[in-house]
Amino acid sequence: xxxxxxRWLVVAFAIASASCIDPVRSDAVDALGPExxxxxxxxxxxxxxxxxxxxxxxxxGSPDFAVGGTVNAVRxxxxxEARVTVxxxxxxxxxxxxTSNEAGNFYVETREWSPVYPIRVAILSGNASQEMKTLIxxxxxxxxxxxxxxxxxxxxxxVFLRSQ
Length: 164
Description:
Elements: H1 3-20, H2 23-31, H3 52-55, E1 65-70, E2 72-74, E3 85-89, E4 95-99, E5 105-109, E6 120-125, E7 128-131, E8 160-162
Parallel strand pairs: 2-8
Antiparallel strand pairs: 1-5, 3-4, 3-6, 6-7
């Protein structure tokens, strides 16, 4: 291969590589900040953060999630609630049931379920239950909307099992 052809190959590779980088997603991932001290990657990391930022489509996390979130014990808190049943029902009536782990996290991998939006959500544990009043319209990342641990009136509180 001649020097001229090699240069064009390098330029073409650089252009192709740059087109695969999504600066918006990269910024969103960076905005999440570092992992919590002492918590490695895995099913219990990053509670109350938008899971699909990393685990959706072209994100850096693996596996890819169709839906993911965190269940907290009480409205306005970020104290996780383990062993909560999360019932998801899509527009076609297809259901998926998951259980929150010790960090309150739950997720459904895309290889398990490809929901058709909108999705209805209910959570229950013992005699406590909540049903989401609205439907999930287009993103399976609960914290995309439920991020307001500050209880500001314009923020949805994190997902919670009990009001008090």
